[in-house]
């Protein structure tokens, strides 16, 4: 059993799954923080309302954000070429995300340190940007990943990206950006109805019920684009050595209009995943209406997970296709770390991930309960 | 590939963002431990003054922590953004400690820092104290893993170049973790962080005592800071020596440059207390040498010599020639992956491959290098000596000054009479010293590693991303602007919080257990 787990092919598959787990973990936790940030100007108008909204995520956003940092570290460790290529390729987009995310911790901590309304309004803007901009850009990045980005490798495996920032802002990628934004706004609204009291929760309920339907429709629309052949996929044509060296120059890949549906056609059971990606947000919409707050949040979480999983399943085994040199695309079998590193990292994950989930769960339990204007007022300067 | 403006800008950006990030990290490292210690005293004695101290220093900790977190995000992604070839080349080894840092440290500190601030009324004192310690533990673990990663760049153990994947791959992960350079750096760096926090607490307390404000809180803080500070400062100095010791095995060139030791001296070598090193003359003018000391520090012996720069350059030249053999074999393997003869040659010479890459500064194919180019490449392994020489001495001077300050402070706190006002003024004036020492120390460690990004394995100038110069200029300008604004805001908030002092409501607060579960987040 252990031997089986540790052969190179299995390790690569496990790390492909863990990559998905990390992205989903990030979107399902920090996603609602970003959603709350993006919703801040709309659900909360007075200072007291804003503090309610902010303090629903006050104690937890920091831990949630670690999913993002860990995502970076784990991609670096398990998929070094992907890390090198995507972050240098999406250079200026990444820079914008970083600026937006740098503003966020500071805004949380500093906003309520001074009573001056202009001061607070400025930080509220920072929180809005820190939520909305990454939510949009992450979607744009996924869109470009689906579409393929122009890059190649030199013989020394030096990654060379050939595109520009504006090349990333194509209609299809922007469409994916909207899916992501709608999805995370819904997720943030679900959190707010679950955690906040009063007007803030009411407004979040109204917005969430609508954005959930939009999420479902936009995601389904993406599926239509793929099936109409408007979004071509990439298909590996050479024989694959699943335990071969991580060298992306050895295989051949072609552009194929139907490639992103091939896995679903080959394994019809997989259709459950996109189906849930469409229905779970609708369930969340119904939950908003029915005021089943806990269920709404869970449905939204399920939707987030299934939408992200759909992208991964559609592309498998490709990780990042090259539009200019398809054969240089990164795939699960040729962009990973060495077998030893994948094994070491798996051991570390098996030890620490359950611990993380356990103490994170405990912290959420300690903080259980609604946040309202009275409670924030009572906490005074010590709340955000 | 040889766009040196791009390389210089990438280095500038890394230096700016790392130095800036490292303004906040040391204070976080030490202050987390200090407030955990204060809270422990509170839990043991139940005297509310200690809880007030925990909360007050906690507020300052929080203001500082926010920027440490914010600027740390940049660090995690900058390798991929600006150093793509390095990321590909080293990710198999270097990425793992970074990921483990996230798993083991960041989650711990970030999850519990929220509860530290928001959990006062939701947790029993004992449980809250545990939360504080876990947060401090997480913070310190993160230093461990990032320094394991950094230690590997200084001394790349447990790994080998794989010609099939064209990168370094791990061969012995335990060797990477227990890398002596990494371990020495960890202890040295966290101790420096403790010194930084102790100096901060000492200085702020001294300011209160000079003005006769919050005397009870300030006095106790002064005592705990001077004791903690003295222990940490001694640890920095003693274990700084340990870093020097490790250098002689792994980074002889850095040591020779720090000491401006151009020629190998007969053992035991003398220590150059002062002098004016000249890179062009390749000697140190006006040197004042103390016999024996360097040999004792560097080799822990009286009979082993320490290699000088000239000898190390000659050594580098030999490795370059062997590296060219490895490069040639690698090119043959790239042309024909089944060329077993080339693989045999490569296996025998691959540890010098990085030295051949130094020649790429002058020409695309190292095999065509002229004798002069080989000699130039060998000399390019010498980092710029004067900066290292003076930087190191500045750092050491700050360290000794702080140790003396803590010693005098501690001595006065054990006496009945009031400590003299000049001591408080000295504590106030000393506040910038740990930051100067720490930033200069980072510079000595990383600039001293040049021209390598991974010592002996990959030259820095090959490691960047294929970006445009305008991209770099744009992001450097952006980071500088945002970081500058945040620095101003941070310092103003910090000063405001210090001026305001501890929460008066807390000071008169009694032991009343606050168990109202409906009560909301309170710090």
From TrEMBL, chain A:
Residue ranges of the TM segments: 13-40, 82-102, 123-143, 172-192, 213-234, 269-290, 302-320, 340-364
Annotated localization: Cell membrane
Keyword Cell membrane included in the entry's annotation: yes
Alphabetical list of InterPro entries matching this protein: Cyt-d_oxidase_su2
Superkingdom of the source species: Bacteria
Keyword Glycoprotein: no
Keywords: Cell membrane, Electron transport, Heme, Iron, Membrane, Metal-binding, Transmembrane, Transmembrane helix, Transport
Protein's membrane topology: Multi-pass membrane protein
Family of the protein in this entry: Belongs to the cytochrome ubiquinol oxidase subunit 2 family.
Protein name per its UniProtKB record: Cytochrome d ubiquinol oxidase subunit II
Biological classification of the source: Bacteria, Pseudomonadati, Pseudomonadota, Alphaproteobacteria, Hyphomicrobiales
Name of the gene: cydB
TrEMBL record, chain B:
Keyword Nucleus: no
UniProt entry keywords in alphabetical sequence: Cell inner membrane, Cell membrane, Electron transport, Heme, Iron, Membrane, Metal-binding, Oxidoreductase, Transmembrane, Transmembrane helix, Transport
Protein name stated in the entry: Cytochrome ubiquinol oxidase subunit I
Principal EC category: oxidoreductase
Predominant location: membrane
Topology in membrane: Multi-pass membrane protein
GO function terms (MF aspect): oxidoreductase activity
Similarity comment text for this entry: Belongs to the cytochrome ubiquinol oxidase subunit 1 family.
Pfam families to which the protein is assigned, alphabetical: Cyt_bd_oxida_I
Transmembrane segments: 20-44, 56-75, 95-119, 131-153, 191-210, 222-240, 387-410, 422-445, 472-491
E.C. number(s) listed in UniProt: 1.10.3.-
Subcellular location, record wording: Cell inner membrane
């Amino acid at each position: 059993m252990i031997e089986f787990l540790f052969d190179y092919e299995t390790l690569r598959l496990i790390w492909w799954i863990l990559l998905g787990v990390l992205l989903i973990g990030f979107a399902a936790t920090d996603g609602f923080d970003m959603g709350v940030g993006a919703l801040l100007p709309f659900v909360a108008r007075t200072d007291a309302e804003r503090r309610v909204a902010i303090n629903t995520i006050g104690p937890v956003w920091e831990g949630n954000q670690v999913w993002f940092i860990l995502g970076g570290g784990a991609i670096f460790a398990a998929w070094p070429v992907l890390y090198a290529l995507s972050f240098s390729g999406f250079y200026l987009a990444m820079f914008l995300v970083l600026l937006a995310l740098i503003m966020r911790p500071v805004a949380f901590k500093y906003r309520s340190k001074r009573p001056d309304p202009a001061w607070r309004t400025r930080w509220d803007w920072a929180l809005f940007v820190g939520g909305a901009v990454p939510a949009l850009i992450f979607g744009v990045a996924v869109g470009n990943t689906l579409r393929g980005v122009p890059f190649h490798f030199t013989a020394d495996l030096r990654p060379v990206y050939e595109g520009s920032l504006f090349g990333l802002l194509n209609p299809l990628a922007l469409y994916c950006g909207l899916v992501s934004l709608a999805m995370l706004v819904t997720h943030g609204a679900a959190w707010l109805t679950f955690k906040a009291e009063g007007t803030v929760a009411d407004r979040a309920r109204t917005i969430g019920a609508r954005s959930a339907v939009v999420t479902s429709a936009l995601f389904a629309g993406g599926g239509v684009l793929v099936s109409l052949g408007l979004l071509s996929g990439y298909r590996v044509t050479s024989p694959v050595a699943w335990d071969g060296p991580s060298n992306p120059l050895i295989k051949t890949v072609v552009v194929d209009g139907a490639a992103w549906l091939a896995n679903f056609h080959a394994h019809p059971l997989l259709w459950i995943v996109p189906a849930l990606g469409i229905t779970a947000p609708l369930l969340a919409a119904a939950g908003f209406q029915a005021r089943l707050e806990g269920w709404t949040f869970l449905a939204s979480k399920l939707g987030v997970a299934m939408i992200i999983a759909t992208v991964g399943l559609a592309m498998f085994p490709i990780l990042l296709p090259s539009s200019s040199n398809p054969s240089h695309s990164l795939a699960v079998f040729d962009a990973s770390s060495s077998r030893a590193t994948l094994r070491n990292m798996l051991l570390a994950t098996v030890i620490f991930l359950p611990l993380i989930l356990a103490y994170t769960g405990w912290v959420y339990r300690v903080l259980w309960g609604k946040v309202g204007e009275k409670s924030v007022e009572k906490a005074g300067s010590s709340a955000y | 590939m040889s766009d040196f403006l791009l390389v210089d800008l990438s280095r500038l950006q890394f230096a700016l963002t790392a130095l800036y990030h490292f303004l906040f990290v040391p204070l976080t490292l030490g202050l987390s431990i200090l407030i955990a210690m204060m809270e422990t005293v509170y839990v043991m004695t139940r005297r509310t003054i200690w809880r007030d101290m925990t909360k007050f220093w906690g507020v300052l900790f929080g203001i500082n922590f926010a920027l440490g977190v914010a600027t740390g995000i940049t660090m995690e992604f900058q390798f991929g953004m600006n150093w793509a070839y390095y990321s590909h080349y080293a990710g198999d080894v270097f990425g793992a400690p970074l990921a483990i840092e996230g798993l083991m440290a960041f989650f711990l500190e970030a999850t519990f820092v929220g509860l530290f601030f928001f959990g006062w009324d939701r947790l029993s004192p004992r449980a809250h104290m545990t939360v504080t310690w876990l947060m401090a533990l997480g913070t310190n673990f993160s230093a461990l893993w990032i320094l394991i990663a950094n230690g590997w760049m200084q001394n790349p153990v447990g790994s080998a170049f794989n010609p099939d994947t064209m990168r370094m791959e791990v061969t012995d992960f335990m060797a990477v973790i227990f890398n002596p350079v990494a371990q020495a750096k960890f202890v040295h760096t966290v101790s420096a962080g403790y010194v930084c926090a102790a100096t901060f607490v000492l200085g702020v307390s001294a300011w209160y005592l000079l003005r006769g404000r919050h005397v009870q809180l300030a006095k106790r803080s002064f005592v705990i800071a001077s004791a903690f500070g003295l222990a940490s400062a001694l640890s920095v100095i003693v274990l700084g020596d340990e870093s020097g010791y490790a250098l002689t095995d792994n980074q002889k060139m850095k040591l020779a440059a720090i000491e401006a030791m151009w020629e190998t001296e007969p053992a035991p070598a003398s220590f150059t207390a002062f002098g004016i090193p000249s890179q062009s003359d390749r000697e140190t003018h006006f040197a004042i040498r103390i016999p024996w000391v360097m040999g004792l520090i560097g080799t822990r012996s009286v009979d082993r010599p320490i290699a000088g720069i000239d000898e190390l350059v000659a050594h580098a030249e030999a490795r370059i020639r062997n590296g060219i053999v490895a490069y040639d074999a690698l090119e043959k393997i790239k042309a024909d992956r089944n060329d077993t003869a080339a693989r045999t040659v490569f296996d025998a010479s691959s540890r010098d491959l990085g030295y051949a890459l130094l020649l790429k500064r002058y020409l695309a194919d190292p095999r065509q290098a002229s004798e002069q180019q080989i000699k130039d490449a060998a000399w390019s392994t010498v980092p710029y000596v004067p900066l290292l020489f003076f930087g190191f001495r500045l750092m050491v001077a700050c360290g000794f000054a702080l140790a003396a300050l803590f010693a005098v402070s501690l001595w006065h706190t054990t006496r009945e009479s009031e400590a003299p006002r000049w001591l408080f003024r000295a504590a106030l004036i000393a506040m910038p010293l740990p930051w100067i020492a720490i930033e200069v120390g980072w510079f000595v460690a990383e600039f001293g590693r040049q021209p390598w990004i991974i010592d002996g394995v990959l030259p820095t100038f090959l490691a960047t991303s294929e970006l445009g110069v305008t991209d770099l200029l744009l992001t450097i300008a952006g980071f500088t602007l945002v970081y500058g604004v945040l620095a101003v805001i941070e310092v103003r908030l910090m000063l405001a919080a210090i001026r305001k002092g501890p929460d008066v409501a807390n000071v008169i607060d009694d032991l009343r257990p606050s168990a109202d579960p409906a009560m909301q987040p309170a710090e």
